[in-house]
Amino acid sequence: MNGLMDRLAASGGDFDRWEIVYSERLEGLFLYVLVALVAALLASAVSDIRAGGARGVLLVLLRLAAVGAIAVAAAGPRVQLQKTQPIRNQLVVYFDQSPSMEIPDANGGAERREAVTRWLAAGGLPLDQWRENYDIRMLGFSGSGDDFRIAPLPGMAGEGASLPVAGFSTDFSSLLVDMARRIKDQPTSGVVIVSDGADLSGLSEATRRENVFADRLRQAGLAGVNAPVSTVLVGGEEPIPDVAISSLEVDDYAFIRNQAEITIHVRTSGISAQRLPVQLRFGGGVIAQTQVQVPDSGAHTLKATLSFSPQEVGEFIYEVQVPPVEVERIRDNNKKAFILNVIRDRIRVLQVVGHPSWDVRFLRQLFKRDPNIDLISFMILRDLAQVRMQNFPERDLSLIPFPTDEIFDRQLPSFDVVIMQNFQYQDHYGINLGHLENMRKFVAEQGGGLVLIGGDQGFSDTNFNWAAIRDLMPFERFQGAGLLDMGRVYETAPFAPELSQTGRIHPMTRLVSDPDENEKLWKRLPPVEGMNLTGPLKPDAFSLMNHPRLKYPDGRPMSLVAGRQYSKGRVLSVAGDSSWFWAFPAAAQEGTARHYATFWREALRWLTKDPSSQRVQVTTPRRQYRPGEEMRVRVSVLDEQYRPAEQAIVDLKARGISSMTGNICPQPVVQSGPGVFETTCIAEGKGFLSIWSGAKSSSGLELGSDTAFVEVLSPVAEYERTRVETELMDALANRLGGRSLRIEKGRTDGVPSVKPVDAFRVLGAREVELWDNGFVLLVLAALLSVEWFLRRQWGLA
């Protein structure tokens, strides 16, 4: 090589490597000329060979050599001289740090990560031998997607090494992408993957189809990679006894009091033939249960279906559980929780009317036309007391009796709202103390809504002798005379009701968002004809509309429309029976009855606790957090007037659903703006957290409460597959040129494959042009001269 360099006047000097390179820019004209020369040469070669025989063949070969020399010279050949330094190859060892490495090893009984530690301590990898020739990279991998992490594990190469567990899952697809990058960044003699193969990225399923698996490797960037990839399987191939809930099939939404279904997939391995109970739990108790039959001790996936009927509207946490079997060694995977959002399919309304009227007719027609409302209406046209007094036979009566027992004893819980319109709470309708107590429980315990509408038979002093009704009313009992003393119990003069401060912005009376414009709209509506005279409002009640002239003894205006939160439920009272005036005359004047419809539809939303009517709302920026991560909790509070609370007493509590937590919200709740209160909590535990907040006004009045749920990510999915993925580990080693090994009793049969790569770093370089060198020109001239001379000598010119 040095002699050649001397002839080219380009001695190698300190350079220890050389290679020939060519120009990357060849003009199109040169190619056309070269093709033309070759074509002409081939055309003349036929005649030369025919004329001169062997001599003609020699002449053609000389001519080809000359043309080839011209082509090489035109390509701009250069000798690149390099001064290099050898580079040590790397060996990359990946250790699986996912939670499945805490599963007991079927061979040794200890955790899989401990089996890896013992294997390394026993010399499972020839680390001392490798260090002499290679740079060893000890790395841990865990997580998936955006949470995939690669972390150095320098301690794994020393004595007493311990493999820490991190992350929530195993993602081999992300691992292969990192592997391809490292191999391309630095010369690599081998890669080793130490894992149980419990992949959750779908790569293990791809091994069942060769072309799909090859595509996945190509997408990761491993096509054409020469470094051998060996796998070391830990965990043992025998299944350990386990029962796991692998997946749930349930809708995100369910309808209140309607049957909902959930399908549970239960995976078993190593469990003897037996029946296993599958339970659905809510509120600390079992609400549905079935059983699945395990055929034998092999591996099985069993399916169970449970039905249940949610009884409350809102977001709730349900939990599916299979009680642990005695021989199980992993019990964290025996239960799985989920959030269910319970909504109303249609609002079920029961309307009980004591006397027909235009007010009754308009309200009934409004609800009947609304496809979101399921209305059941009863009108009392038969006086039970008169029937008893006259002793009429049942067969002689044309009207059916009011089914009080059926409604108030059996069917009441099936409704969302009950409307008692112009109704006398007297026993001559068949109403007794038990029926009224059921109504009180319907509101207080079941969270139902109650609407009390007055009229000529309602809201009189004689109607409120029973404690159940008196407790529900938003106002105190009126201390007046009897029903017929109209001057004392009913105001007959028409009047235009006035919105209270609460009514200006309350959802029920908010026709438009702007409070001033809202008040103007109400003033333009027709006046109503009279109202029942009531006592003062109770301390926890609020007024929406008032009489412009009538006052309570304390000087406050008398309320036409009032509301009240009563335990779990809500009560609305309308002290009159002419709200229909807001529809009929308004339609004649403005061509629309929308304000009447808006009031009653918003009233139903408030009575059924629609989220838009809540005064307290708890929110978090996200629904999922990693353990130890901070989460910002915001509580929005509206005051008694449904305005952002300037001052409020806010209480906040967080607790775990499936595991106990400590004080995870150590920071106090602080007000950051009108009606906005914030604090910071720490996500702890496993599964779901419930964040509850309640608020009171500065005067101590309860404003409401709300609960939000967040999920603390946990490695439950890792425990659903206790079996190691032998097929995946074997497929990776076979496709990527390595060896597939198994840790059994602390040893492996052989060591991972290593393939040295001749790698170097270029410290300096020099290029020498060849085409313009005198030696090259001499060779080209010699070829052409010899060909011309021989042709002349042999008479072939």
What would your notes on this structure say?
By secondary structure, this protein is an alpha/beta fold. Helices cover 26% and strands 31% of the residues. It is built from 20 helices and 35 strands. The strands form eight sheets. It has an eight-stranded mixed sheet. α9 links the parallel β16 and β17 (373-379). α3 packs antiparallel against α20 (774-793) and α11 (404-411) packs parallel to α12. The longest helix has 25 residues, at 28-52. The protein is elongated and about 145 Å long. The protein starts with a helix and ends with a helix. The model is unreliable at 8-12, 383-390, 392-399 and 479-487 (pLDDT under 50).
Compact summary:
The protein is α/β, with parallel strands linked by helices and 797 residues long. 26% of the residues lie in helices and 31% in strands.
List the helices and strands and how they pair.
Elements: H1 2-7, E1 17-21, H2 28-52, H3 54-74, E2 78-86, E3 89-96, H4 112-121, H5 127-131, E4 134-142, E5 149-152, H6 172-185, E6 188-195, H7 203-206, H8 210-220, E7 229-233, E8 242-249, E9 253-255, E10 260-269, E11 274-282, E12 285-294, E13 300-308, E14 314-321, E15 335-343, E16 347-353, H9 358-369, E17 373-379, H10 384-390, H11 404-411, E18 417-421, H12 433-444, E19 449-453, H13 467-472, H14 486-489, E20 490-495, E21 498-499, H15 515-524, E22 528-532, E23 541-551, E24 557-566, E25 569-574, H16 584-590, H17 594-607, E26 616-619, E27 624-625, E28 630-637, E29 649-656, E30 670-673, E31 676-682, E32 687-696, E33 702-712, H18 716-719, H19 726-735, E34 737-742, E35 760-769, H20 774-793
